[in-house]
Write a structure and sequence with these properties.
- The protein is mainly α and 292 residues long.
- It has a single domain (28-42, 80-291), classed as MetI-like (MetI-like fold, Orthogonal Bundle), CATH 1.10.3720.10.
- Helix content is 73%, strand content 0%.
- Helix 4 packs antiparallel against helix 9, helix 8 (181-188) packs across helix 9 (193-229) and helix 10 runs antiparallel to helix 11.
- The two termini are 33 Å apart.
Length: 292
């Protein structure tokens, strides 16, 4: 029986074999490259930008792209390329923290519901259903009415929106693991519910959570852009892709590039994370892994 406990497997380990399969998976590789570019842009903005993204110079208003201003300037004379680089930083910060809130809290609630069952599971699932009634934008509007707009409010709103999703996915995945032979063997050996959850259930659902976190990251970037577009998210002078779109809407015919560049940045960031999530889902699936 101890041998059964020692060989309880995580579905697909991320070892050398994983990376061999990953290199042959086009969706994963494209998503990885696009996501790496997003992270690189944000990291680069901490140390270098072509120009100061906070410097306003009305004499440079709506300057066309040239050798000095690669993507031109906005209505306030700020360099668009610099704004995009710093805007990537805001998107990543909001995405990582908001998804982290949903992942930690939602996973804990889902594991608790799966381990306890009965009325505890029922209460947690009904609370999750209640949480689905408050999307990120609605939550942000309510929080803004009380605390005022800002990046922190956007993070909290998106984080709260992510909790029910992770709770439901964790609970469903954990329920399947609780019926596995190695969990029954652990029970027979006298292990408690908490020990089984941490040592056996959680490791076996990590791949599902990683895939979901990647996909929710993409949704968080879209939500942050939408909140900033509405004036509820990242506030001036901090650059934001969503607010760049909002500022460009009155100049669509005069300078369409003002909307095109941040729109493309959002599209490529979301596309990259979605492709990365789809690729990870395929690679973590043992049935698909054997085919590659």
């Amino acid at each position: 029986m101890s041998a059964v406990l020692e060989t309880a497997p995580v579905p697909v380990p991320a070892g050398p074999g994983f990376w061999r399969r990953a290199r042959r998976h086009p969706s994963f590789m494209i998503g990885l490259v696009l996501t790496a570019l997003l992270v690189l842009a944000a990291a680069l903005s901490f140390g270098w930008t072509p120009h100061n993204p906070y410097e306003i110079d009305m004499g440079l208003r709506l300057r066309a792209p040239d050798a000095k201003y690669w993507l031109g300037t906005d209505p306030f004379g700020r360099d668009i390329a610099s704004l995009l680089l710093v805007g990537a930083r805001a998107s990543i910060i909001v995405g990582v923290v908001a998804v982290g809130i949903g992942l930690v809290v939602g996973t804990a609630l889902g594991l608790l519901a799966s381990a306890k069952r009965g009325w505890v599971e029922e209460v947690i699932m009904r609370l999750a259903d209640f949480g689905f009634a408050f999307p990120a934008i609605l939550s942000a509007i309510m929080l803004t009415a009380v605390f005022g707009p800002g990046m922190v409010i956007a993070i909290v709103a998106i984080g709260i929106y992510n909790i029910p999703t992770f709770a439901r996915i964790t609970r469903a995945s954990a329920n399947a693991v609780w019926g596995r032979e190695f969990v029954l063997a652990a029970r027979a050996c006298g292990k408690g519910t908490f020990a089984i959850t941490i040592e056996h259930v959680l490791p076996n659902i990590l791949s599902v959570l990683i895939v979901q976190a990647t996909i929710r990251f993409a949704i968080a970037i879209l939500a942050e852009a939408a909140l900033s577009y509405l004036g509820l998210g990242t506030q001036p002078p901090q650059p934001s892709w969503g607010r760049m779109l909002s500022e460009a809407q009155t100049l669509l015919f005069q300078a369409p590039r003002l909307a095109v560049f941040p729109g493309l940045a959002i599209a490529f960031a979301v596309l990259g994370l979605n492709l990365l999530g789809d690729g990870l889902r395929d690679l973590f699936d043992p049935r698909l892994a054997r085919k590659r």
